Amino acid sequence: MRARTLHALAVLFGVSLLTFLVAHATGDPVTLLLPANAPETTRTALAHHLGLDQPLPVQYGLFLLHALQGDFGRSFLYGQRVAPLVLQTLPATLALAAAAFCIALLVGLPLGVIAASRGGIASVVLQSLSMLGLAMPAFWLGLMLVLVFAVELHLLPVDGSGGLSHLVLPALTLSLLSLARISRLVRSGMQEVLDRDFIRTARARGLPEWRVVWVHGLRNVLVPVVTMAGMELGDLLSSAVVVEVVFAWPGIGRLSVDALGARDFPLLQGTVFIAGLGFVLINLLADILCVRLDPRIRNSTGAAGGTAP
């Protein structure tokens, strides 16, 4: 467990450093905050006020030091502290990611089991749909769903938030890629498990086929599914940017896009840092759950590292 924690901290450090470098590579925010004919003394004073006149290593060190204390600075664009701004939009992103995750898991898992247990045309159809889901860009799918269900059929709202009806199209769009990956993983895992001796023994004992597949078979593929589910949930939090922009969803993804366009370094770094923290924590929880589901993971880790996590 200690190794996983250290790895998570290293990932978080790398995300923060990369975000800092990319943000500063976009240009000088002072040029956007002041008119083009502003005096040089005014530009210098504003850069000093924002702390942009210090060397980059000093700026990053100060950001990291304050971030560890929960302080991400003050937004250039909104003139407010970054942490409250992000916390205001975080529930919307969490709701979108949770809805997409539920759709992906509740639909993808049964589809994978059905395709593996029945085979034939069901397996071919699922494989084709999975490839389509992996290849289809989220922004294109979102626009097509808006065109069909909002513009043509008038069944759902076009954009914004306000109720469950506003959540349907963004959640469907965001869930497609995860749904395809989960269903493919479950299908391949179940195909391998259903050929094992203990499954033949269960069938020879006269157990119902549904029990053989959905209890004995599915239980033995849960560990990789939980691992991927943790990664997918974390990925949904970070990949919600495109969907939030398409559907004007008021989450941290849309906030980070606004920050990038305005070269608002503190806001951009704060949103990405918090999203990265969520990704790391979710994967840590998934690792812990996998150990609980299969103690052999704990034993193998302890044998390899000398101590159990």
TrEMBL record:
The keyword Transmembrane helix applies. It is found in: Cell membrane. GO terms for biological process: transmembrane transport. CDD domains: TM_PBP2. Keywords: Cell membrane, Membrane, Transmembrane, Transmembrane helix, Transport. Pfam families: BPD_transp_1, BPD_transp_1_N. InterPro entries: BPD_transp_1_N (IPR045621), MetI-like (IPR000515), MetI-like_sf (IPR035906). The chain crosses the membrane at residues 94-117, 129-151, 163-182, 233-252, 272-291. Belongs to the binding-protein-dependent transport system permease family. This is ABC transporter permease.
